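Subject: design request, 178 residues
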């Protein structure tokens, strides 16, 4: 590193010493002018700039291109992960739709079974109610017959009815009952 600094100092000092040769006035011509020295100065300056700046610029662009390549790799990895997740989500959606169809089919079957059970129970209840009604009607009919017979027996027989034969009593009773 010290050698490169010494080379830099010499490179800057050499043109200054060459240009500062004298103060006499000369006619300016191409061979007599400081054009070549200026070109030499510019060449040295450009060389020094290239020497000092070339490697850091190359390193910067190299690092920058590596960073971009790494970012592209990361983006590609994320893209692949997103594709996998999208595929899994589609599979999950398909399974969910199939399960929903199964649930709907099961619900329809259950509703049919429940409807049949409810109808069967309603019919059983209706039959039971009809039986109860018939039983109550028979009981009420028997009560009415007993009440009619009791009333007939209590009110219907007086001393004038004693001369009546059995066929007349049966016809009187059947008239009251009917």
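Subject: RE: design request

Done. Sequence follows.
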């Amino acid at each position: 590193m010290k050698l490169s600094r010494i080379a830099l100092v010499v490179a800057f000092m050499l043109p200054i010493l060459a240009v500062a040769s004298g103060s006499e006035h000369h006619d300016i011509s191409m061979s007599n002018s400081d054009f070549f020295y200026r070109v030499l100065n510019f060449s040295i300056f450009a060389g020094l700039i290239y020497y000092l700046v070339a490697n850091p610029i190359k390193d910067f662009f190299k690092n920058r291109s590596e960073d971009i390549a790494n970012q592209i790799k990361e983006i590609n990895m994320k893209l692949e992960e997103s594709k996998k997740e999208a595929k899994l989500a589609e599979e999950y959606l398909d399974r969910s739709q199939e399960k929903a169809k199964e649930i709907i089919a099961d619900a329809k079957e259950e509703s049919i079974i429940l409807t049949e059970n409810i109808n069967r129970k309603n019919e059983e209840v209706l039959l039971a109610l009809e039986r109860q009604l018939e039983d109550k009607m028979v009981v009420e009919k028997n009560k009415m017959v007993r009440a009619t017979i009791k009333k007939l027996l209590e009110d219907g027989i007086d001393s004038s009815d004693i001369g009546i034969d059995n066929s007349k009593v049966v016809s009187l009773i059947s008239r009251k009952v009917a």
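The radius of gyration is 64 Å.
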